[in-house]
Design brief:
By secondary structure, the chain is an alpha+beta fold. The chain has a single domain, classed as Alpha-Beta Plaits (2-Layer Sandwich), CATH 3.30.70. The chain has 4 helices and 9 strands. α1 runs antiparallel to α3.
Length: about 190
């Protein structure tokens, strides 16, 4: 008997909803980061509130004080396999913005990610026990899970992600994404 007849046939991944976190204190840096990411991912279809980044001072030494974070989601769906490349492109965009603003500090942090029906996954260059290596020094970070009633925070969920404005944003983006997928399935 040939064991291959019992192997599962891999299926293509379901396209995912691209999102991006932008952390900065300067309006020009926010604008340049969003413009750069739209060149990669297409039109923005939703934007979170821009909230004060005050749950940790992790980035203060390299970025200064008065930081805020905003999330955007993109109209076009992407393949989840692109996540590492998007993070590398985001890192290159950060360097470009630093040069354009002639800044002696890091003016912006760009964190691409995606959401599925079940979870929010963000890209990071920082290794840790719960992160999955992707490619070129980039890891997938499972940020939280979606449940029937909302969001399930994990032990390692970044503290600032657990704010009402962001939770509402991600729930709304997921709701629209799921509805879009249902429409695709109905049309198939």
């Amino acid at each position: 008997m040939d064991y291959r007849e019992f192997m599962a046939v891999p299926k293509p991944f379901t396209p995912v909803k691209a999102v991006c976190g932008i952390l900065a204190s300067d309006e020009a840096a926010f604008r340049m980061a969003e413009e750069g990411m739209t060149r990669l991912l297409g039109s923005v279809d939703a934007r979170s509130p821009r909230l004060l980044f005050d749950r940790t001072d992790y980035y203060a030494p390299e970025m200064g004080e008065g930081l805020k974070r905003e999330f955007v989601s993109f109209e076009r769906l992407i393949e989840p396999e692109r996540l590492a490349d998007l993070k590398l492109a985001g890192n290159a965009l950060e360097a470009e913005i630093r040069t354009r603003l002639a800044s002696d500090r890091r003016p912006v942090n760009i964190d691409p990610g995606y959401l599925t029906k079940a979870a929010l996954i963000m890209a990071t260059a920082k290794d840790f026990s719960h992160r999955i290596p992707l490619a070129s020094g980039i890891y997938a970070h499972l940020e939280f899970l979606f449940t029937r009633t909302g969001i399930r925070r994990l032990d390692w969920t970044y503290p600032d992600y657990d704010q009402e404005g962001y939770r509402d944003f991600f729930i709304a983006v997921r709701r629209n994404y799921v509805a879009f997928l249902k429409g695709l399935e109905a049309g198939a």
